[in-house]
């Protein structure tokens, strides 16, 4: 985008000299009604400026003509007009002219080329040019936004297609590996193959999990994830998740406890997403807690009347300066735990995005070597009040 400079905006107005008499100046203003400002120039150098308004106010006053008629204009001119170089951009002039916030749209400025008078600039013209520039910028930004959006959409589409293409053969790998592992059609020889086949099966499942996470993240980023909301019973989901992760919890030498408020209301939310949030948080707790540690899952009504679901562990913790970072996609704290345990760095950002999709929030508290608590807070509007007829039946 071409940004106009002082040279483009200047009008070649014939200047006065400082010896021009006030009467001559008056005559020129009278002859040309559109003349708002006239520069005063001696030997090519600007020395002042006469504004029509200021000049006439003095000159047409009682005795003004008698007092000033024969005097040189230098006695009535503004000795400190704004002088800009021809190469200055309209934005620079704008800042200099309106930066102090005092200028009137009738004001003018002098344009010089290497110190020599070149022409006159008008504040009104500058304002018009600036308005046009702002509009063009807004249009440019909008075009860029549309382009970025289109690019993002094609990225999401690409990811969706690719993960579909990857998932189909992967499901075959997982399915057949499982079938062989179970020796459905006869014993495997030599038996070492059993180990390999179990590896194939586990790796396949792991890969599938990663592909699903990537796809979910892409969908959420593109704003294409829709909530499938129903009334859900949080304690049931917590139990389900604990049951599902029990083998890895035991294998890691950890214990897990749940503290669920007795009268916890049902939640109006997307069941799959709430389950995913819990799976992600509990598997992180398992992954980043050394043996003998404990994990607890709490679900309760929070102080603000919303629901608070928290996963606490006694693990390695997250450094304070990384607390924000790990909430961004693909960010992991570099340590022996992340290096040895698989992960893509999408678990927390996904959980956060899902909590936010429910108008909630996810927050992290952690202390190195002490443990981590990840809280998901859902707003009061998501809690389903007990149905009145149910209460009446209970009373009766
Ligand atoms: N409970 C936790 N304790 C310690 N560090 C954690 C915990 N949860 C997450 N982190 C840190 O945050 C990073 C990002 O977590 P996440 O997004 O789930 O990715 P991933 O589990 O794939 O590494 C982890 O790599 C780890 O460094
Ligand atoms: Mg994780």
Strand arrangement in the largest pleated sheet: 7-9-10-12-11
The CATH first-level class of the largest domain comes to Alpha Beta
How far the N terminus sits from the C terminus, by CA atoms, comes to 77 Å
Write the CATH architecture name of the largest domain: 2-Layer Sandwich
Give the overall shape, derived from the CA principal axes: elongated
- Within CATH, the superfamily of the largest domain carries the name Histidine kinase-like ATPase, C-terminal domain
What proportion of the residues form beta strands (DSSP E)?
15-25%
Short description:
The chain is α+β, with helices and mostly antiparallel strands and 396 residues long.
Explained architecture:
By secondary structure, this protein is of the alpha+beta class. It has 3 domains: 6-129, CBS-domain (Roll); 148-221; 229-384, Heat Shock Protein 90 (2-Layer Sandwich), CATH 3.30.565. It has helices spanning 6-9, 22-31, 52-59, 64-68, 90-98, 123-181, 192-221, 234-251, 271-287, 336-340, 347-357, 388-395, and strands spanning 37-42, 45-51, 83-85, 108-113, 116-122, 229-232, 255-260, 266-270, 294-301, 307-313, 361-367, 371-378, 383-384. The strands form 4 sheets. A 5-stranded mixed β-sheet has the order 7-9-10-12-11. A hairpin with a 3-residue loop joins strand 11 (361-367) and strand 12. Helix 6 (123-181) runs antiparallel to helix 7 (192-221). Adenosine-5'-diphosphate (ADP) binds at residues 280, 284-285, 288, 313, 315-318, 326, 332-333, 338, 343-349, 372.
């Amino acid at each position: 985008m071409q940004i106009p400079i002082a040279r483009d905006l200047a009008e070649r107005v014939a200047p006065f000299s400082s010896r021009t008499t006030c009467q001559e100046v008056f005559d020129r203003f009278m002859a040309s009604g559109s003349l708002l400002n006239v520069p005063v120039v001696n030997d090519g150098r600007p020395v002042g400026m006469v504004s029509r308004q200021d000049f006439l106010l003095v000159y047409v006053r009682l005795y003004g003509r008698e007092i000033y008629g024969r005097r040189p204009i230098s006695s009535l001119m503004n000795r400190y007009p704004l002088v800009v170089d021809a190469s200055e951009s309209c934005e620079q002039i704008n800042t200099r002219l309106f930066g102090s916030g005092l200028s009137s749209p009738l004001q003018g400025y002098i344009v010089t080329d290497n110190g020599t008078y070149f022409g006159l600039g008008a504040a009104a013209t500058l304002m018009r040019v600036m308005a046009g520039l702002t509009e063009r910028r807004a249009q440019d930004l909008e075009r860029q936004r549309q382009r970025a959006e289109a690019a993002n959409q094609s990225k999401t589409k690409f990811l969706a297609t690719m993960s579909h293409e990857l998932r189909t053969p992967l499901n075959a790998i997982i399915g057949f590996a499982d079938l062989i592992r179970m020796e459905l059609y006869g014993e495997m020889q030599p038996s070492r193959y059993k180990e390999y086949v179990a590896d194939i099966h586990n790796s396949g499942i792991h890969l599938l999990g990663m592909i699903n996470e990537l796809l979910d993240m892409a969908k959420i980023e593109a704003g294409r994830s829709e909530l499938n909301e129903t009334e859900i019973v949080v304690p049931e989901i917590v139990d389900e998740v604990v049951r599902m992760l029990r083998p890895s919890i035991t294998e890691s030498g950890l214990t897990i406890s749940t503290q669920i408020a007795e009268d916890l209301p049902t939640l109006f939310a997307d069941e799959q997403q709430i389950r995913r949030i819990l799976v992600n948080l509990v598997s992180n707790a398992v992954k980043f807690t050394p043996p003998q540690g404990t994990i607890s899952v709490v679900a309760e009504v929070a102080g603000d009347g919303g629901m608070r679901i928290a996963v606490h562990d006694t693990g390695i913790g997250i450094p304070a300066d990384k607390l924000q970072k790990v909430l961004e996609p693909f960010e992991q704290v570099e340590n022996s735990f992340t290096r040895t345990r698989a992960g893509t760095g999408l678990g927390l950002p996904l959980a956060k995005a899902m909590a936010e999709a429910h108008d909630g929030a996810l927050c992290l508290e952690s202390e190195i070597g002490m443990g981590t608590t990840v809280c998901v807070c859902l707003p009061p509007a998501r809690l389903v009040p007990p149905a009145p007829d149910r209460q009446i039946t209970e009373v009766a």
